[in-house]
Amino acid sequence: MARKARIPARVSPLIAAAICGASLLLPGISGQLSAQEPTVETNSPETRTDTSPPETEFFFGDAQRFDPNGAGYLEREAFFHDETSGIAEENDENAGWDDQDISPLFPELRILDEVSVERSMARLRDARNQYLEARRELRLGEERVGRERENFSTANARYDWERHDLRMALERRERQIEGTHRNEAISHLVRSMRLLDQIQNPGVLESEPYLELKASVLREYVKQQFRARNLDLCVDALEDYMALGPARAQEPEAHRLLATCYRYREVMAERMRDRENRLEYKRRKNEHLLSYARLRFGEDSTEFQVLSRRVQRDMYEFPEAYQ
């Protein structure tokens, strides 16, 4: 006796008919469905409020003096149930039709699973848990550093050089503890971002919980990478952050941090004698610097006017590149 095809739950009668007999419908279904792609982290100091351009030496200084390791400028699943067999009781709502082995036989149906609200919400919950784990790791690191400082003492040191060595050893332990917990936190944040990128339901992608969680994850990721001096890894995260909506694209600090990252890339391109990329990174750096000054101080402010003139001089070498 031939084994009947088992159809998963939540499949419409039209698709069920296609599976049981009208197999020609399946290509049509696959042609109509497509997975929607999702739209395209700082004990930071307070923003400068004086009348001079922000971080002039960093953004416009001699590239040969640029120290990428310096600290002065950085202040800153669960859609499928357990596999079943046979037919469940007639009054069972699922009736045993949601077996996992149906999807590989009909790949087109996997699309329905990927865009389901249930799958998207499950991924959203998992992403949130990963974010909370990252925050927990950072708190643990702070607590460990605090205990190290509480237990630190130079009372038994007789000489200044002994006290100095003890303080240096304490700083090394603090950096090691912070680095260990920061790396763990970044791993959780990367997992969270990957889960968020897998969400395909349009309603979930436009929901406030999704947008708020993604913004929080990206902010924390940028902050931790800045502390680790990994500026090059922050560009995509900052651009994704500003693509979440107009409100976030109007945050001055996001533009300042992105200008900082492009300045880093500009200097690296200059050292590699890559003129084309150097020019492109210079242009993007200056665009975000001007956006920062405009949003932070206003176009009529002295800060914006001074920075505008400085940007014009910075682009004078390649005037055709700056419009």
Structure description:
There is one protein chain. This protein is mostly helical. It has a domain at 51-74 and 231-323. The chain contains 14 helices and no strands. The protein has helices spanning 13-20, 25-32, 56-60, 102-105, 108-114, 117-151, 160-197, 202-205, 208-227, 235-242, 246-249, 252-271, 275-297, 302-314. Helix 13 packs antiparallel against helix 14. The relative contact order is 0.11.
Properties at a glance:
323 residues, mainly alpha, 14 helices, disordered N terminus
The first-to-last residue Cα distance is 75 Å
* Cα-based radius of gyration, to the nearest Å: 27 Å
Query: Roughly how much helix do the residues carry, as a percent range?
Result: 55-70%
Q: Oligomeric state of the chains?
A: single chain
The best one-word shape is flat
Our estimate of the beta-strand percent is under 5%
Q: How many H/I helices?
A: 14
Q: Tally of extended strands?
A: 0
Structural class: mainly alpha
The helix/strand order is HHHHHHHHHHHHHH
Largest sheet: none
Task: Indicate the mean pLDDT.
Answer: 75
Unreliable stretches, pLDDT < 50, 5 or more residues? 1-54, 71-92, 94-103
